[in-house]
Amino acid sequence: KGGVLYTSASWADELVQTAGHFDLCVDSAAGSGWNGICETLKPGGRLVFFGATRGAGEIPMRKAFFKQISVLGTAMGSARDFQAMLDFVQAKNVRPVIDSIFPLEEAEQALTRMDQGLQTGKIVLRIA
């Protein structure tokens, strides 16, 4: 139905206005975004997370228990699931979005770019 820019201070409200509340949110970033995610969930909704690229998430406890939100962390399946995902990626020729490529010597600048949340897509370090 639409999208919002996660760097906007009011992204959760914008998302709810655009698409309504959700039964399930899947998150790979964590960090300060969990408060907004809990805002977008319906009562009894679920938050599944599988990463923390934006740092440790803090669950807004009152929202979680008043809305009866379930939180589940996952390592994203078994070895068989991972192989099925690789097969799908190859069969469908899935390509990641590349934001930028840095030589290994500039890894610190790449990390700074990621820490500041400036990238859209993957940051690649070129080794050779």
Main features:
128 residues; alpha/beta; Rossmann fold; 2 domains; 3-stranded parallel beta sheet; two-stranded parallel sheet; 5 helices; 23% strand; globular
Fold and architecture overview:
With 128 residues, this protein is α/β, with parallel strands linked by helices. The chain has two domains: 11-73, Rossmann fold (3-Layer(aba) Sandwich); 79-126, no CATH class. It has five helices and five strands. A three-stranded parallel beta sheet has the order 1-2-3. Strands 4-5 form a two-stranded parallel sheet. The longest helix is centred in the middle third of the chain and has 13 residues, at 79-91. The termini are far apart.
- Strand percentage lies at 15-25%
Radius of gyration: 17 Å
How many separate domains make up the residues?
Answer: 2
Helix/strand/pairing class, anyone?
alpha/beta
Fourth CATH level, the homologous superfamily of the largest domain: NAD(P)-binding Rossmann-like Domain
Q: In CATH terms, what is the architecture of the largest domain?
A: 3-Layer(aba) Sandwich
Number of helices: 5
Strand order of the largest sheet: 1-2-3
- The 3D shape can be described as globular
Unreliable parts: none
The main pleated sheet reads as:
3 strands, parallel
In CATH, what is the class of the largest domain? Alpha Beta
Cα-to-Cα separation, first versus last residue: 42 Å
**What is the fold named in CATH at topology level of the largest domain?**
Rossmann fold
